[in-house]
Queue: 2 jobs
Job 1
Amino acid sequence: MPQEALSHCDAVVIGEVELVIDRLLDDLEQGEMRGTYKSATLHPMKGLSMPRYDLLKKHRYVNKTFVQTSRGCHQGCTFCAEPLMNGLRFRYRPVDEVIHEMENCGARTISINDADFFGTPERPKEVMRALKGRNIQWQAGVTSKLAQDDRMLELAAESGCTLLSIGFESISRSTLTSVHKHVNRPETFAALVEKVHSYGIMVFGLFMYGFDGDDLSVFDDTVKFNRDADYDACAYSTLTPYPGTLTWYEMKKANRIVSFDWTMYDQGHVVYRPAQMSPDELRIGVERAYANFYSTSSIAQRFPLRGKRHRAQWVIYNLFMRRGSATEHIESIAEPTAEPGFAPMPPILPVKREWRAAVLEAAGGPGPHMA
């Protein structure tokens, strides 16, 4: 929502900053800020500068070094802002530039900061072959489909992978279909966790509550499934209708969004009216899910006594998540606010036909926000 942001500042960059930052800084130096800056093209992902890792307050984080190897994601899930920012097609950094950053970032434990590192069959294998023998431990976010590939997992283990974060989202097939997460098949989840474990790699499961198909049973059912399937760690978030996403347009059309206070759009507060429970029941359910999954008995039950998983990292993640879920207690749902006078203007509109048609319908036809 760049026009709203512009009412609070001198300049707003829409989309990726790398191709316009020089122009913006020149204008700033000359005292001639031009309001909105938008690149006409997407960055080719070549020649990206090394981030200033020395500026990071490292004592505040478990994961301290993030390296990006690609941008984009094929999935186009209705609740996700990724396709609006980076598109549905992957763009890749040259492998030698990726390795150079990893070798010179000052850390030997690295998080690969891609939307889906396993997004295509061959590219991640190139990166992982280049990582072999460099004594770097890494983790990455992936989707479930290519995490089933034994050769992919074998290369991951050989190249130093210790953990894969996987967006499972829900254990309901109908819910996943309704949000276009077609790649996920809940009947395969438990076997996938077991397969990843067999390569000595931990599974961090990402789940979301508050979908229209969720009722009050979803919290305990999901946690029971996670414990029985031996997930190493889980994060439970509240569905958040980010402006410009299909979920946003659908909820806006149905007059279900209660709060437009963007500080509440944090995957923790409830900013809309859920379909099958009250907002407070959703908030309490998410808290209960965290408390049950990270209870002392659950941690003891899930501890990896056998196999090659990294036990010290396992303990750090579980204690960090347990502490975080306790200290970030959300006292209430978001307070109602007036609707903003600005429409979302996503930098990129996904090109999938079903996505575009649904957004246009939910938005009431083409308008300036579709430009």
Job 2
Amino acid sequence: MPALFLARFAAILIAASTAAAFAADSALPKVADTIAERVRACTVCHGKEGRATSDGYYPRIAGKPAGYLYNQLANFRDGRRRNATMTYLVTNLPDAYLREIAAYFAAQHPPYPPPQAASTTPEMLERGRQLATHGDAAKNIPACTACHGSALTGVAPAIPGLLGLPRDYLISQFGAWQISARQAAAPDCMAEITRRLSADDVSTVIAYLAAQPVPANAAPAASAAGKLPLDCGSATPQRSAR
């Protein structure tokens, strides 16, 4: 009798726990299976709609060319860029899904915040302007505008804009290029250019870029105005076997 009683009691407990689990699952909110819902993990760091957050490090991804965003997702997945969180999120994702994510954020156009306040001298800003808009022929440094567009808002299909990015993010990326912690498809034009820049050059061009307001209705140019000054493997969307 005790054994039978225990068996029945155990069965009741199992049934009760199963019913409770079912009820709890039924109480969970239903989430639509849309790309906007699936990229919520991205917006934890990159902000609502990919507009960036106020911590000064995570970049804006909204409105960037879809080819550029796809290239960066593939770079994190395939080891050319290093960030533990990004690698974890994309390591098992196929190209088709990366392209869907990239297209979603490329289509977002939330407003830009004003430039971050910073203490820079007029001399620094002028040197930065010269590098950004004219380059430095003596050092064989092309202007930023030669690749990133005359308005520095990027060029379709895969060259990003340089305005509206947090100062700390710009600093970290120039540093990553210079020590080869960030790479792109060969020929790696940005790695080559950053090796030609002195520490002062980097500081001044970042100061200039970070101080510029983003033009109203900013968007990537439809195409480059002329031939790029260097061969650049990242100027077009990369191909992958996945």
